[in-house]
Design a protein that fits this description.
- This protein is mainly β.
- Helix content is about 0%, strand content about 60%.
- It is built from no helices and eleven strands.
- The protein has strands at about 5, 10-15, 20-25, 30-40, 45-50, 55-60, 65-70, 75-80, 90-100, 105-110, 115-119.
- Strands 2, 4, 5, 6, 9, 10 and 11 form a seven-stranded mixed β-sheet that branches.
- The protein is elongated and about 45 Å long.
Length: about 120
């Protein structure tokens, strides 16, 4: 079974930093795109940042210049460094990865980690 396990959420004051980590484990053949999504109360889940296996990144406009996504392909991990945090960044953050555990690939999600930014 493939699993994504996140860590690193918490409570921080506005202007502070947090780093989220997500590790994929199980019978993994390969992983293409990995990313982070977030869902604030009463809102739809939105894409925050993605990174391909080749290192190409994509960010939602609201986090550009503040968040940095990176990955370690050898360890099947993806990180999200979040700097200059704002109260509007408060949400549950979910790790996502497209993983080939067999001939067929599939989307996998982590359980979510809470990020709370106080003003």
């Amino acid at each position: 079974q493939v699993r994504l396990v996140e860590s690193g959420g918490g409570l921080v004051q506005a202007g502070g930093s947090l780093r989220l980590s997500c590790a994929a484990s199980g019978s993994i053949i390969s992983i293409t795109t990995m990313g982070w999504y977030r869902q604030a109360p009463g809102k739809q889940r939105e894409l925050v940042a993605t990174i391909t296996s080749g290192g190409t990144t994509n960010y939602v406009d609201s986090v550009k210049g503040r968040f940095t996504i990176s990955r370690d392909n050898a360890k099947n991990t993806v990180l999200l460094q979040m700097d200059s945090l704002k109260p509007e960044d408060t949400a549950v953050y979910y790790c996502n990865a497209y993983i080939y555990a067999s001939y067929w690939g599939a989307d996998y999600w982590g359980q979510g980690t809470q990020v709370t930014v106080s003003s």
